[in-house]
Amino acid sequence: MGKYIVHSTLRPAGTQVMNQTGGHSYLADEPLVAKGTDAAPNPVQYLLGAVGSCMSVTARDIENSEDNLTVKKFKVDVSGETTTFSDGSSKVTHMTIKVTAETNLSPADHQLFLNEVVRKCTVHESLVGAIPMDITFE
């Protein structure tokens, strides 16, 4: 079991938020049209990036645990759609995930590898059931 803590502090400039976790700091913001300063990705972009990053890290973890697997290329493109409701709330209502990968595996084993990446990705598994997702493999 892992435990993660992120401290998020609203800055005085627009909608800038400084996030700190461990020894890392990263900024989040909103675009100018949303009264931000466009100094960093917005929280939804970080969510989409978290999915792609998690799948990529998971692919490397699987590669490191398998003697006969070499990941030659692994790329994840994630897009998301948001909906704003009449009460002003909004949410991510759909994600499209495209995984492009090259390995040294046979086509059947390559597909098993990709399925295992999705199954073991913590972020993806946390969002299953909450956000409809379409995943394709190339």
From TrEMBL:
Superkingdom of the organism of origin: Bacteria
Coiled coil (residue ranges): none
SUPFAM superfamilies reported for this sequence: OsmC-like
Pfam family for this entry, one: OsmC
Alphabetical list of PANTHER family matching this protein: OSMC-LIKE PROTEIN (PTHR39624:SF2), PROTEIN INVOLVED IN RIMO-MEDIATED BETA-METHYLTHIOLATION OF RIBOSOMAL PROTEIN S12 YCAO (PTHR39624)
Protein name per the record: OsmC family protein
